[in-house]
Design brief:
Structural class: mainly alpha
Strand content: under 5%
Number of strands: 0
CATH class of the largest domain: Mainly Alpha
Radius of gyration: 22 Å
CATH topology of the largest domain: Tetracycline Repressor, domain 2
Distance between the termini: 82 Å
Number of domains: 2
CATH superfamily of the largest domain: Tetracycline Repressor, domain 2
Number of helices: 9
Helix content: 55-70%
Order of helices and strands: HHHHHHHHH
Length: 243
Amino acid sequence: MFVNPTRNGGNSVVRRTKTDAAITREQLLDAAERVFRERGVTRTSLAEIAAAAGVTRGAVYWHFRDKADLFAAMCERATLPLEQTLERAGTAVHADALAALRTLAIDALTRLACDARAQAVFEVVFHKCELTDEIGPIAARRNRERWHCLVHVEIIFRRAIELGQLPPDTDTRLATQALHAYIGGIMREWVLDPTAFDLAAMAPALIDTMIAGLAACPPRRADPLSARPRAIASGKPAPTTPA
């Protein structure tokens, strides 16, 4: 007897199918973390990731267009909470901008120190990812994400000027670049050797050192009126008036 799948439990079949697909996708992302970390991105094939996940290669292509798409999804899964926190901080009106920046920076380091998934992904990004033609789109994506991060941090620096926490001629772009490079350098070195120091315990002191330096002696702009907001959508800095 024929049974219409849209009746008598048809919805449960659909739900089960979606659940199974979601589980397979997570298995593939977990496998990608492990294999990329062990072998590096360039030397890893999608077939190897499928085998590590215990699925067919066809299952990989059902969920991801190619290796670059899989890599991007793996990174997003680990970094999305931090990106959401950064965006909220960049759009909020802070009564104490430097304190908000301090909290944001400490949170970034603490998340890395306490999240095994973030550690695996950051190790792959920093030390196991060779930007070949095969994964070229990853470089463009990472560049967009970097500019997005810089935009929101610079907004907070501008708020610090409005509050009188930094002088009006503070070069907010250079301050943003310096803070970004400082935090990125700490992350890069720590994932290379997590036994070097206790990142979670030392995060406040590390960030306080940087924030105190920027507050005491910030980089100065020759013409404070030359600053222009960044262009978030394009992922590129907006043009500035020549000094």
